[in-house]
Amino acid sequence: MNLPLQEQETPVPQWEEELAKVGFVRRLLRARKWYGADWWFVAISSVMVLGFIVVALFPQWFAPYGPHEQVGPRFLAPGDQPDLPLLIVRADSGFTSLEDLATGPDSEVSRPPIAVVRGAPTAGSLREQAALIDDELQDADTGMRLRPNIQRFDTVEEVLQSVQDGESFAAVMSSVQFEEVADQFPDLEAPTDISGGVASAGDFTLGTNQIGQDVLSRLIWGTRIALIIGFSSSLVALFLGVPLGLVAGYAGGKVDRIMTVFMDSLYAFPGLILAIAITAVLGPSVLNVIIAIAVLYIPTYYRIVRGQTLSVKQEVYVEAARSIGAKAGTILRRYIYPNVIPSVSIIFSVNIADAIITGAGLSFLGLGLPPSTADWGIDIARGQEFIQNAWWLVTFPGLAIMLVVLAFTMLGEGLTEILNPKLRDR
Amino acid sequence: MPETRVGHAAGTAPAEEPTPLVEVRGVKKHFPLQTGFLASLFNRGETPAVRAVDGVDFEIRRGEVFGLAGESGSGKSTVGRLVLNLLEPTEGTVLFDGMDLSKLSEDEMRRLRSRMQIIFQDPLASLNPRMTIGEAIAHPLEIHEPELSEGQRRRRVLEMLEAVGMNPPTSYADKYPHQISGGQRQRIVIARALVTRPELIVADEPIAMADVSVRSALLDLMMRLKEEFDLTYLFITHDLATAKYVCDRIAIMYLGRIVEVGPLKSVYGAPAHPYTQALLDAVPVPDPRHRRTQPMPRGEIPSPIDPPSGCRFHPRCPIAQMGLCDVEDPQLMEVPESDNHLAACLLRAGPRAFREQTPPV
Amino acid sequence: MANPDILYSIRNLTVEYQTRHGVVKGVDDVSLDIRRGEILGLVGESGSGKSTLGKAMMRLRNGSARITAGELWFDGQDLMKLSERQMRDLRGSRLGMVFQDPMTSLNPVQRIVEHLTETMLTHEPEWTEEEARERAENLVERLGIRRERVKDYPHQMSGGMRQRVMIALALALNCDLVIADEPTTSLDVIVEAKFLDLLKELRDEFNLTILLITHNIGVVAEVADRVAVMYAAKLAEIGNVNDVFEKPLHPYTEGLLKSVPNIELDSGALYKMQGSPPDLSSPPSGCRFHPRCPYMMEEVCPVYEPPFERPEGASEDCRVACWLHHPHPQKVAIGA
After folding, report:
1. What is the number of H-type helices and E-type strands within chain C?
2. Which chains touch B (3 or more CB pairs under 8 A)?
3. C neighbour chains, 3+ CB pairs within 8 Å
4. Which of A85, A307, A340, A357 has its CA 20 to 30 A from that of A76?
């Protein structure tokens, strides 16, 4: 049979020989010359991926707060000073904290009048904080009580005026409001805030959410769950899909047909809906999400590995292996598997990205993960109703998802370019 | 080159002859056409098949180089695989050293493979890209001589590399196939085939992919190894010019049949079958003073799904007689004034040819 | 350029391509004239640059290959000065190309007749579709394909037929020069022989000029008038086909001819050439063939590049790049 001659037969490219002589790290660096843009693609994305992995392993090194701590005021915009409820008193009153306003049986007034702006959330903070102190006082059994008599005024000025006049012993007001008018009331001062004394201003780089949790911290802790879901579900899918694909592709016939029909129907089912169905049946937990997503991606591996196996099976070197009397198992292990696996490693990376998106989608829909988990999907879902006032609640988790997905996809695509022997040597 | 022994080439050998290494008897291989599901619903008759090999008889004697030549689609490569039982014949039997291959168990067949090997056309494709050269050559040993120690195996591999002219062997053992040149790769394939000391080598177009300047070195190597390892070759080729340098006997295939078989000198010197004649004429001769003047057969090779009736070559044959050649299917018959030379032509071989040669007095 | 007998003239052509291991000269300073009405065989092994040369002659982009130096003169026109658009008009209408695998240059979903008429109409817009179709059918028939087969798709035809269709395409537009790049390599011998017969007929009938690029020396001997031998991106030898085959001047040509299997029963044993073709990314110094040459002269060949000249006493058409045929190799070497 006349087959076309190979036109350019390269004996041994000199650079490959050179490459073989140097160590692994130097080889990696030198490879830059031959792979060009693809090399940079892989380099940048693998640095990103590594970064994400470190963050996921040790979130406590990076996150300023715990994922569940309610550490600040609600809805603090990124970069803003936290808007604290301040205790405002006359400078000469001698009050320095809310406790100082406590009254005993021998006090003139049993309930100290404290002024607030009508409708402001400060009244709530005051009541909560006062109740807290009151409980402590009662426990201490000193006979002292703190039961503020809340006076409501329409404007900031009226509130401050009443403190200045001595009508109210103190006022509780947001720091922002107070700073605006503080100049007009030189006699007043704000010795402290009544937020419970946790947050110092300026630490909420990405703002806070609706219950006063730090968005950045939740983002960082959320990396862990995203990568756990991405890696484990892809790994599970890989460990099931690859052997199934190998066996089906090599065996052929009925086994292949039945398995392929099954996998194709799984594949044809809309992915997210399938995952929703599985999590709905299994109930919410991280493990169940992993299982649901893994099931979703088994056909991806199955199809690729089966296709590759079918084509590798036709290769002359497999026939050569049969002609030297190798058994089916040996052929699969030593001739087919090593030639199939490179394409699997490429889709693995892209697959992780996919799984992360699906995981986020599931938790966005409120399925799968327990609602308190620090997870990007959950954060987006929870921030969604405030999207008009608090854009940062959905934007940053969204960006995080995008970055992780981009990193893994870029890594996968870059590796495709480099590992694909057909594209090599252009 | 050893002179071919006397005997009836295609038929059974006389009793005093040692059994031939390979005997192929009435072998057919039909590949059913892939028909779609719908087509199979409507077409209830016999499923059409490609008759790649359609009744082939020959034998390969120990120590000879038996050539099998023909154009693409003639079925010569399929015959090579049938001889090694890499394909199972649809009909007929293949005997290796007197054993019927179709009667062997899978395990017996696997063990027998150490005695018969194949060299493929494309050396790069026939080497696993993820195995080093050393591993590739060692693998047949792992299968057939598992009792060898790691060191013994390595020694055998290096010996083999040296035997095929890869010097120094140690510098090649750890390379991958893509790191060496095409000619060297074919040497590696040869080394892998020979490492279990087989008796039969099926060489399927072993030099077709190599460059002109490398070809003769490869042929030379194969012939040297034949002497050294006491081999028998089935040399499959489309290149009749190359076959001339290596084959003791040659069979010409056309559309799944052997049309002519005999000692090379006899077939090339006095081809009996018109197809053989055309094939030999068509080979370009590297000498501009001897340009071909003979016309070529008309038309193209018919489809092996539905071969012509009678003699398969009759629609293209310049000497075909209508009423005879398109009706009667010729068998391989003796060619007049020849020794061991058979042809499947009603006019040039067999009783009719003998009658014409020696008209009744 | 003054010589009207010369249809295509290549002057000092260099083609470079970028690979991951640096710049490689696929064609290195090659000069070649193709005469009107001749069949010029260009032989070489794989990687010798013969295909690169053929594509460069059409100014076809071939991967990263770039013409970095030299001139291409076709029928008095300087091709290097033409715009890409003008070049496109020229390709197909006056310069035809036939490739090793015609399947790649035929549209798999287009019938042969459609392909032919469409190509004709793009180059000759004044023809009517009926005219073009009629012409296409006549041509295909002339090339030995039954008229009704023109309605076939490429995959329904055999390799030989597809090659004929490619030739028909070149003839349909009255090409002056057909560059055939390994046209018979994927064909069986009988089909190859018929195709070569056809080439000879067409040359006589249409006064076609053919550059036949091939690795098959037998094919060249069968049809070519002149033969050029390429080795490692350079021309080693050119000459009349009878002269070259009878008395090859370059040791490479000699080795090549002796290592070609010959079907004639009385031909001698095959010659074994040493070594293998060089890696073009780092070609040998001096004469590129010197590491494989049996006649290598120690002080000259590995150091100095031989000029491509007519040796004394050789015929008019002959050129060779070998110090053996230089009158005073030592002197030249010392002088250089």
Report:
1. 10, 11
2. A, C
3. A, B
4. A357
